[in-house]
Amino acid sequence: MSVTIDEVARRAQVSRSTVSRALRNSALISEATRERVWHVAQELGYVPNYVAQSLSLNRTNTIGMVITHSANPFIWQVIEGVELAAYERGFSLILSTARNDREREYAVMQSFQRRRVDGIIVSSSHMKTIYSRAQQSIEIPVILINEQVAHAAFHSVSIDDYEGARLAVQHLVNSGHQRIGYIACTDRPRSSEKRYRAYCDVLVESGLKPLPELRMRETTLQDFEIGFAAAESVMQSGVTAAFCYNDRIAVGLQAKLRKLGVPAPDALSVVGFDDIDEAQYAIPALTTVRQPKLQMGRRAVEMLASILNQEEVENEILDCELVVRDSTKRLQH
Fold first, then answer.
1. Taking residues 39-55, what's their average pLDDT?
2. Where are the alpha helices (H) located in the chain, listed in sequence order?
3. Residues 288, 275: contact at Cβ < 8 Å?
4. Region class of 328: left (phi > 0), else alpha (psi between -120 and 50), else beta
5. Which residues, 6+ apart, have CB-to-CB distance to 320 below 8 Å?
6. Residue 275 carries which DSSP code?
7. How far, rounded to the nearest angstrom, does the alpha carbon of residue 282 sit from its chain's CA centroid?
8. 86-95, 145-154, 323-332 — which is least confidently predicted?
9. Phi/psi at 316 (5° precision)
10. CA 274, 80, 303: angle at the middle one, nearest 5?
């Protein structure tokens, strides 16, 4: 005969609900109790009936996650954070790629809902264009990561784009640079506008002039290509430093500088944003603003779990950190 949850509860001297939570690695259970329950369950050979549990709780203990594209190196640490937090709380994770297609993103969210996932995490989405439909049709909790437009109906976890950009530009100003360009892109308008505003504010506060003519706004190019294409214009402008919207633009810029034979950072200091893995291996190693990618993924799951437990949840904005490497140099006046 199969071992029941009641037998595990009696042997571990806890309640049925405590056994259930402990076996799902719930944060509500202490580490000591969790270990005792797991030990007893293994000793008795208990196998949880998750199907029956999900029916009784009207839960599937499954999270659906939508990402725009798997080629973006930024997203994988976010996914790792989601996976770690999901495992700790007994959730399974279903991952799907929207391929940067707004209709596909909406279809994936609908599919997740039909599969009865408990909630959905969406990273860097097209929610601006599908928001009204999603608001009306998606009836389960949705957590947005680094969404480009604020939505009252969905919760979000994001980073402080403005303060992160201030760190980057202030570092260049403190290093003696007076002509600083900003290289951006157009498909992430909210974060790009905040970073550009910070760029302008720091320069004005320092008695310097923003250079809007260097604000590259290519819509058809990938991020690496934007940086690569911008290099010649940047060098012709006479700037001594460039702040890039993200690391991939910065790495593309550095690649073209090498091809042009431009010594970096002697001729041009470059700062990125994100701190993707490639940043530390770029030539030269890239100074950048580090986003807490793992923490964002974790917090998205924690927020979702709180909502499912009918707890109050506030949107979160996380801090960034400046990481100084070899791509920036102090000017000698």
1. 71
2. 5-12, 16-23, 31-44, 50-57, 74-88, 102-114, 127-137, 161-174, 189-205, 223-236, 247-260, 293-308
3. yes
4. beta
5. 159, 160, 163, 164, 167, 289, 290, 291, 292
6. -
7. 21
8. 145-154
9. -125, 140
10. 90
For the chain, give the mean pLDDT. 88
Evaluate whether 91 touches 62 at the Cβ level (below 8 Å). Answer: yes
Sort strands 142-145 and 119-123 into parallel, antiparallel or unpaired. parallel
Burial class of 71 by CB neighbour count within 10 A (0 to 12, 13 to 18, 19+): exposed
The continuous run of DSSP H or E covering 62 comes out as strand 62-67
CB atoms within 10 A of CB 246: 28
Sorted by where each starts, the structural domains of the chain and their CATH numbers stand as: 5-48 (1.10.260.40), 57-160+293-319 (3.40.50.2300), 161-291 (3.40.50.2300)
pTM (two decimals): 0.80
| Residue 14 structure tokens | 């806890």
For residue 67, the cross-strand partners are 97, 123
CB 268 within 8 A of CB 242: yes
Residue 244: closest CA among 224, 273, 284: 273
Cα gap 167→198, rounded to integer Å: 9
Neighbours of 111 (CB within 10 A): 14
Q: Which residues contact 249 (CB under 8 A, 6 or more apart)?
A: 183, 184, 185, 223, 224, 226, 227, 230, 272
